[in-house]
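Appendix C reproduces, verbatim, an entry submitted by the partner laboratory led by Prof. M.T., so that reviewers can inspect both the input and the predicted structure.
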Amino acid sequence: MDSPKLIPVMDLMGGLLVRATGGVRADYRPVQSPLLASADPVNFVKVFQKRLGSDTFYLADLNAIMGLLPNSEVIKALLEQTSATFWLDGGYKRMESVPQGNERIVPIIATETYLDWDCSPDLSATMVSIDTFHGRFYCARAGMPLQKVLASARAAQPKGLIHMRLDSVGAGDFNQFKLIPPRQGEVWYAAGGIRGPEDMLSVGEAGYVGALVSTALLEGKL
């Protein structure tokens, strides 16, 4: 079995990378790390492309997710000044708002914001993020049960699925037994609480192909 793939996480707010902690976005502050010269997103990508050989980055545009003006100019700069591919969570609510046509942008359809779960469009060019908060399914569509959303997502055949444990982001409390069990052949990524190499091994033991990681990278633990 291949080692789980590490996907560096970029949480973007007000043009800068911020350090996410526990899903409480009002508390997020610009990242500080001995590995980085600043909280500049382009610098982050270049550092981890060189350090880890990363070719794919998870990018959460927190302004867009919170209904504010998106960080469009920063995303443009990332595409122009780096060679990376970006899994982009832009707070998409409807399919018509999901960007298409750029092979270096893989849209994230996240249950926190997306509403159209009662239909199954072609999601083969996207990733689907199943979001939970303190063990409860977190969905923008009130009353939508997890199993119905999972069925809809699976029918739409995305590139892969993410279990995003929002309360564990930056908390260092990864627990493989709290992850949604994957079905045979499914491509799942874990997000939230990864502390170091042992947790990455546990990701693989849980049947996941990779993990989204921020804090452990910034602290030089991976």
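Residues 41-52 form the longest helix (12 residues). Additional entries are available on request from the coordinating office.
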